[in-house]
Amino acid sequence: MCTITSDQKNAILDEILATRRSHRMFLADVPPEDDIKKILHAGLLAPFAAAAVGGSKDYFRQFFVIRMGSPSMTEASECVMGRVMTMADELESEMEKNPKLRAQAVMFVQRLSMIKKKGKVPGVGTASYYIVVAERRGFPPVELQSLAHCLENMWLKATALDLGFQIVSITSEMSEDPQFCKILGIPPGEWMLMGCAVGYPKDELSPSIRPPVEDVTHWLD
């Protein structure tokens, strides 16, 4: 029987929510596998689109844990970096023809340029673990929404374990990449992918700053 009161539960949850941050710098120390399994279990508990994938023979969600320094990490890093290079070239070409896109995408292009210069995608090989989550495609296509729930659960669990967590959004671009999917052992195009990096954070970050809820809430009659 749980001995924690509702007020205590709320206080703990509020603390985790407030301290959840994106960590992009990680220590070389490797977290224990048990902690990673706890994070994966939290992701498994997240909601999913049952009506969209209810007829599937296989389970709706899979996790692939890639360790820093492993052959799989080397291959995955090369694949993801190749995709970044292709995206940058395609986007720059489109921006030359589309002034509106050029204005909208300028910051994203700068980020891609920074990654190209460094030769490494943040989160892929920069933390102890690069975790890829696969959500089976269904109809209607709501895989990304399910993945968002899953990654949020994982993020909060990592925060509770005092581990650093970083979303690796470029992973979604790898869902149909034959070479990347071969590393995972899944058919390209059948699963939507998203990824994250997990490790011990190098720096302690201050809590997120948000406006008062009253400033962004509208009660409608």
Write a structural description:
By secondary structure, this protein is α+β, with helices and mostly antiparallel strands. It has a domain at 24-77 and 120-199: NADH Oxidase (3-Layer(aba) Sandwich), CATH 3.40.109. The protein contains eight helices and four strands, in the order H-H-H-E-H-H-H-E-H-E-H-E. It has helices spanning 6-19, 33-44, 50-53, 71-97, 99-104, 106-118, 143-160, 178-184, and strands at residues 61-67, 129-136, 164-168, 191-199. Strands 1-2-4-3 form a four-stranded antiparallel β-sheet, covered by helices on one side. The model has no long low-confidence stretch (mean pLDDT 90).
Kindly name the structural category.
alpha+beta
Distance between the termini: 42 Å
The mean pLDDT is 90
**Low-pLDDT ranges:** none
CATH architecture field of one domain: 3-Layer(aba) Sandwich
Q: In total, how many beta strands?
A: 4
Number of discrete helical segments: 8
CATH homologous superfamily heading of one domain: NADH Oxidase
Morphology call? globular
CATH overall fold name of one domain: NADH Oxidase
Largest sheet: 4 strands, antiparallel
Please state roughly what percent of the residues sit in beta strands, choosing from under 5%, 5-15%, 15-25%, 25-35%, 35-45% or over 45%. Answer: 5-15%
Spatial extent as radius of gyration: 19 Å
Strand order, largest beta sheet: 1-2-4-3
H/E order of the elements?
Answer: HHHEHHHEHEHE
Q: Helix fraction?
A: 40-55%
CATH class of one domain: Alpha Beta
